[in-house]
Design brief:
23 strands; globular; 15 helices; binds nicotinamide-adenine-dinucleotide
Length: 490
């Protein structure tokens, strides 16, 4: 049993009231850890520590090279502990070892990317009338509140922490209450590499308690949040009171458009990967597959044939291709949506059930599920299910494909499969979404800005834009001829 602690001002802490919350392995329902149930007082202690560290300049006062050297050491340590981190991620979140291993590798690469980026030139000059010399510089925002979900416990943390620290901010970080294990390991690494006290603080606990305190506290300058759209809206309202900068990575219901001229097997393969990797618990999941009508039946038949063969099981079994859902509560939500789909009149082409055989009854496993005969206005087409449930819709032509694809409140991601290059780009350019692929689905790059249009969020993670999110912009106008302005006559 792992006994987790919070990390505040360079010290490992229990919750102020000593309360804990069990952490569960979703593959078998066993308790793997106890986490402190942080309180408002704990959140405040972390915020004050971060504020003090920021004002003292122990981090922002370092040169970019010095900060980068810490980030490189962190990347190195993540790799050194890769096996342990991978194992823990699988136990905590349920994802297969293969997926967890990719996340750990990506996490190290993300630290390296921002370590490199922060030492590159930034800012610019602009030309105004003499005798003014003008320039723009970038500065850290200050104390950043970082709040993350459970689907990529380590990687989502790193996507925020790496650029925030690179930019010279201090942080108050909150992992999901469901998956705090690998985030704590990451903070152990921060301690090991000697990050100055108070620079990186972690508080565990409930969103409406700890998260809300971070979002509302006047000493926090910015909130960077990844999670559900409803929570994002609440955070935005709360943060408005103190006019915090907000960056929101929210939900999606992303379309994957398959034209008849696409390479058929490639399209089927990526469509499966698009929805069933991560058991569909991926913000950018291709949860709506739109197929041109003349290949629709053939596509559905082949997709279902392959979906039925996906090996569902515990993540620590190397033969497992799809793991469980993250929690009992989330299992109920996903099964609830399957019921809604049936009641709405959609037809199940495969799956639709919890898996209770082969020793999986103690875990939260759901069959890869396909709905057909769906209508655009159905809830299973419009709402994020966040599980291994896909709807396959039919379209007649390019125009209808785009209309259906854009026909939800979300705008996170989207894919197009076609062998007509011009058509692929034409359709992608009409998609109201921030992350897109042509003849591919899902690969994510540290170099590329990640985020959504519409109700999928505000701002971007990763890439150069992801660093700028954690920076303020300042104009500096320097008078090279120091004499009175002479506006008033006496
Ligand atoms: P969630 O919104 O329930 O929780 C996310 C985090 O917010 C957790 O740490 C939670 O404790 C905290 N929280 C909850 N209520 C809060 C409040 N009132 N104030 C402050 N913090 C609060 O989301 P989840 O169920 O953990 O994650 C799934 C969601 O995350 C999905 O909608 C998914 O699409 C989204 N997601 C988006 C991206 C992206 O990049 N766009 C990436 C991963 C996940």
């Amino acid at each position: 049993m792992i006994h987790l602690k919070m990390y505040i001002d360079g010290e490992w802490k229990e919750a102020e009231n000593q309360e804990t919350r069990p952490v569960i392995n979703p593959a078998n329902g066993e308790h793997i850890a106890y986490a402190p149930e942080g309180t408002v007082a704990d959140a405040r202690a972390a915020i004050y520590a971060a504020r003090k560290a920021f004002e003292d300049g122990v981090w922002s006062g370092l040169s970019a090279q010095e900060r980068a050297s810490y980030l490189f050491k962190i990347a190195h340590k993540i790799e050194e502990y890769a096996q342990e981190l991978t194992q823990l991620e699988t136990e905590d979140n349920g994802k297969p070892l293969r997926e967890a291993g990719f996340d750990v590798g990506d996490a190290a690469a993300c630290f390296r990317y921002y370590a490199g980026l922060i030492t590159k030139p930034d800012g610019y000059t602009y030309h105004v009338a003499d005798p003014i010399q003008a320039m723009v510089v970038r500065e850290p925002v200050g104390v950043c509140g970082l709040i993350v979900p459970w689907n990529y416990p380590l990687l989502m943390s790193v996507w925020k922490i790496a650029p925030a620290l690179a930019a010279g901010n201090t942080i108050v970080f909150k992992p999901s209450e469901v998956t705090p294990v690998t985030p704590m390991k990451l903070f152990e690494i921060f301690e090991e590499v000697g990050l100055p006290k108070g620079v990186a603080n972690m508080v565990m606990g409930a969103g409406p308690v700890v998260g809300n305190e971070i979002a509302s506290h006047p000493e926090v300058d910015m909130i960077s949040f990844t999670g559900g759209t409803k929570t994002g809206k609440n955070i935005m309202k709360t943060a408005a009171e103190t006019m915090k900068k907000v960056s929101l990575e929210l939900g999606g219901k992303s379309p994957n458009i398959i034209f008849a001229d696409a390479d058929f097997e490639t399209a089927v393969d990526y469509a499966l990967f698009g929805i069933y990797s991560g058991s569909g618990q991926v913000c950018s999941a291709g949860s709506r597959i739109l197929v041109e009508e003349n290949i629709y039946d053939r596509f559905v038949a082949r997709f279902v044939e392959r979906a039925k063969k996906i090996r569902v099981g515990p993540g620590n079994d190397p033969s497992t291709e799809m793991g469980p859902l993250v929690s009992q509560q989330h299992l109920e939500k996903v099964l609830g949506y399957i019921e809604i789909g049936k009641q709405e009149g959609a037809a199940i082409a495969c799956g639709g059930n919890r898996i209770l055989n082969n020793g999986l009854d103690k875990g939260y496993f759901v069959e890869p599920t396909v709905f057909v005969d769906v209508k655009q206005e159905m809830r299973i087409v419009q709402e994020e299910i966040f599980g291994p449930v896909v709807v396959i819709q039919k379209f007649q032509d390019e125009e209808e494909a785009v209309k259906l694809a854009n026909g939800t409140v979300y705008g996170l991601a989207g894919g197009v499969f076609t062998n007509d290059g011009a058509k692929g780009l034409r359709v992608i350019k009409k998609l109201r979404a921030g992350i897109t692929w042509v003849n591919s689905y899902h690969p994510t790059y540290n170099e590329a800005p990640w985020g959504g249009y519409k109700q999928s969020g505000i701002g971007r993670s990763l890439g150069t834009v992801g660093l700028e999110e954690f920076q303020e912009v300042k104009q500096i106008n320097i008078n090279l001829q120091v004499e009175p302005v002479g506006w008033f006559s006496n």
